[in-house]
Structures are given as C-alpha cells and as structure tokens.
Amino acid sequence: MTSATAAGASPAPAAPRTRKSVTGTRKTVAALFLLPALVLLGALVVYPIGYSVVRSFYSSSGDEFAGFDNYRALFTDDGIRTALKNNVIWVVFAPTVATALGLVFAVLTERVRWGTAFKLVVFMPMAISMLAAGIIFRLVYDQDPDKGVANAVWVGVHDTFAQSSAFPKAHPGRNSPLEPDRGGFITSATVRAGQTVSLPLVGVAPDQMPKSAKKAVRVEPEPGKITGTTWQDFTRGKGVGRLGEVDPSELGYAGMRIEAVKDGRVVASAEAAGDGTFTLPAQADGARLRLPAANFKAPYNGVDWLGPSLVTPAVIGSYVWMWAGFAMVLIAAGLAGVPRELLEAARVDGANEWQVFRKVTVPLLAPVLAVVAVTLMINVLKIFDLVYIIAPGSSQDDANVLALELYRKGFSEGRPGIASAIAVFLLLLVVPVMLFNMRRLRREVRR
Predict the structure, then answer these.
(1) pLDDT at site 237
(2) Which residues, in sequence order, are CB contacts of 281 under 8 Å at separation 6+?
(3) CA 254, CA 231: separation in Å to the nearest integer?
(4) Closest CA relative to residue 400, chosen from 74, 78, 83, 75
(5) 184, 210, 219, 228: which could join 197 in a potential S-S bond, CB 3.0 to 4.6 Å?
(6) How far apart are CA 27 and CA 35, in angstroms?
C-alpha cells in the first residue's frame, strides 16, 4: 500500500537553483564585485553630469533660475562662437591628417627592414603628456630663430635665396653729407670726377659687423674717377676719434652698395671693399651718391607661427605629431589581417602599387580607418592642454576651443552657469560620436 502510493504520487519539486552566468559566477557575487566600481562611477561621472545639467539652468550666482539663457549665450557670445568655429576646424582637419599619416606610415613601414624601429620612433610621442608636448612646441614655434626650431629652419631656407643686409640699423651721424631717401640715404650735393667722398655711418654694433669687414682706409683720389670710403664712424671711449674722419680702429662697411644717381636714374654703381673703399667710373660725374634701401634691409625673422592667423594650424600640427603614431599602430594591426592573396591577385591582374593601395588596401581597411578617425574626433572635441599651453596670451582668443572656453568662463570670469552649459553642450557633441564608435566595434566583433 505504501509502495503503491509512493509509486502513484507525483515527484517532489526540485529545490530552486541560483542562476549562474556563462563564466559560472553567481549574480550576487558579480554585483558585490561591481558595487565599488558603480559607486565610483556614480560619484565621479553620473553625479557631476547631473549637477552640471542642473547648474546650467541657473545664473552665475546660482540663486536665480535662468532657463535657457546660458544656452542662448553659446551662440551669441563672441568668445564661445570663436571656440565653436575652431572646434569645427579641429574635428575636420586633426583626425583626417593624423589618420592619413598613420595610414601612409603603416603601409610604407611594411616594406622596409627597419619598419619596427620607425614605428617605435613615431609612436614615442604618445608617451609624452599633453602638458610636456605643449611646452616642447611652445619652444619649437618661438619667434626668435635662435630659439625656435621651426623659424630656424624657415629662416635658413629663406636666407639661402634672399640674403639680408648686415647693416639694418646703420644711419648717418652728426654733420653727415647724407640725408634720408626712400629707405636709404643720398648725398645732399653732387660729386665730381677726381673727388674723394666720405660716407660715414653709425648704428651698427661692433659684433654685428660683417666678418669680411677690415680697418677702414681713407682712399686717395684718382683722375677721371670718383673714389670714397663708407665706414663705421665710431670709436669706443669718450673723446676718442675724430668725427667724420677715418680713425685707425674703425671698420669699413664691407659689401655696402653705392649708386650714382642722375635725374632719378642710376648711371653707375659699386660695392665697397672690406676696408669700405669704393671707386665709381667717370659716368658718375655730376651725380649724387645713394646708399639704397637694400643696404639697410632688416634680417628676416621668420614666420609668426603663434600669431592670430597661424596659431590654430600650429597647435593642430603638434597634435598630429603626438597622435599620428597612435593611428599608425592601429592601422598596422588592421593591415596585418588583410589577406595577402587579394593584394597579389590585384598585382597579377595588372594593377600598379597605387591602384592596389587605393582600390584594395584602403577599402579593406575602411572599418579600421573609421574607428581610428572617430576615436580621434572624440579626443579632439575635448582638446584643452595643447591650446592652453602653446597659444600665448596675445593670440589665445584666436586659438580658443570649447574646453578652454569652459575653463575661462568657469574659473577666470566666474560664470559657472555658462561654463556648465558649455560642458553639457560638449557632452551632447561627444555622445553621438561615442555611440557610433561603439556600434562599429560591436559590429566588428560579430563578424
């Protein structure tokens, strides 16, 4: 009887089991491990975002509700509008140039034996902080060619084709026969054949005199010719030397050009020797002697890289220097997964290297290129350090970006309401790009 009842009875329900994840970890244990991270995430990310959103609707004092006034200022304030325009320039050019350079480096380094060493050198700037990179490039872009590498190179190339004068500050002294003339100087009286002319000047420091300069010499007259001397009419020491006369320690203006001018036309010209002496032919008889403006041309001082017109491209250049290596490494990793059979098949079909690169390599790398470009866009939208460090105060308004304007509005100008609105606006710009990047990454994982 007992056995029949037992046989006919339904089996007892099994005890409920605690569900486990794929890795075998219980949800409760997983939640406990995640709890500290969630607390930190809430304290350091969620709460600041929420507080910034609320704060953006209040006035600078935080006592009055301002509605959307702070957001209207984003499109009416001149400083914010300049920052927004510069951010657009950054987003368009910086990721594009960095990705393009990374692609070129990744493709070319595959063909050379020392490609790994080259990749190491190009990637090395990533180990430098933005602050350090900003200081480095502030020095690179220094206006003084003796300090700034960029201008040292630029001036060197320029002076190769257009040599500047050694006498930019030279000018006539007291009782000089010379008077100003269109950037140069000209004698007030005409000269005659057989006459000796003195053309004294001052204003050139002894250490700035040309290396070819020698001790000035008073030249003797020559029949049928006009002779003269042009020199630095200055001797160190009070009461030493005679004004308007060649003294033993004074140097000649080597290479100074002298022109004989009649009725506004140059009839003869000469170049002073190392001792400052020169000789003009008989055609100069009755002419006035002119030292043309080219003798006093100021030395070329290079390009104002950090001026209002070039400061943004200059800072973008420093960013590309840092991040081209990042792009190169990611693209090189993607390139390693490209089937070599496809490249060889294209070559067998008659395609040259440029066609293989453009029509096979780049399309196959399109997903990787998109991820790199979008990642750099997110990074560029938040750019702050380089602009703040590199751009000098005189042109910082022209190089302004949203992150820098947020800092200036919040801390320098004491307007936290507008600063919070800029922060929320930046978040709204970054979030869609981040979502796009995440979707692409998930799609690649599924493949």
Answers:
(1) 63
(2) 225, 226, 268
(3) 8
(4) 83
(5) 228
(6) 12
Nearest to 98 by CA among 87, 108, 86, 106: 106
Q: Look up the CATH superfamily of 69-153+305-446.
A: MetI-like (1.10.3720.10)
Predicted confidence at residue 21, as pLDDT, reads 54
What one-character DSSP code corresponds to residue 393? G
Q: How far apart are CA 302 and CA 239, in angstroms?
A: 40
* Nearest alpha-carbon partner for 418 in 49, 58, 25: 58
Q: Where are the domains of the chain?
A: 69-153+305-446, 178-296
3-state secondary structure of 254: coil
Position 1 scores a pLDDT of: 43
Residue type, 375: T
Strands 226-232 and 196-201: parallel
pLDDT of the residue at 14: 52
Burial label for 46, CB within 10 Å (0-12, 13-18, 19+), is exposed
Please write the tens of the pLDDT for every residue from 328-340.
999 998 888 888 8
Q: What are the tens digits of pLDDT across the range 175-216?
A: 788 999 888 999 989 999 999 999 999 988 877 788 888 999
What is the C-alpha to C-alpha distance for residues 188 and 46, in angstroms, rounded to an integer? 81
Q: Record the pTM.
A: 0.74
Residues 265 and 9: their CA atoms lie apart, in Å, by 130
Q: Which of 206, 229, 226 is nearest to 216 (CA)?
A: 229
Q: Give me 351's structure tokens.
A: 């395609």
List the chain residues with pLDDT less than 50.
1-8
For residue 287, the model assigns a pLDDT of 93
Residues 357, 359, 360, 365: is their CA dihedral positive or negative? positive
Condensed to tens digits (0 to 9), the pLDDT of residues 32-62 reads 888 999 999 999 888 988 988 998 888 877 7
- Residue 399: closest CA among 79, 162, 121, 116: 79
Provide the 10 A C-beta neighbour count for residue 39.
10
**Residue (of 161, 176, 150, 125) closest to 329 by Cα position:** 125
Q: Is the CB of residue 171 less than 8 Å from the CB of residue 202?
A: yes
In whole angstroms, how far apart are CA 303 and each of 150, 159, 168, 275, 365? Answer: 9, 13, 19, 35, 38
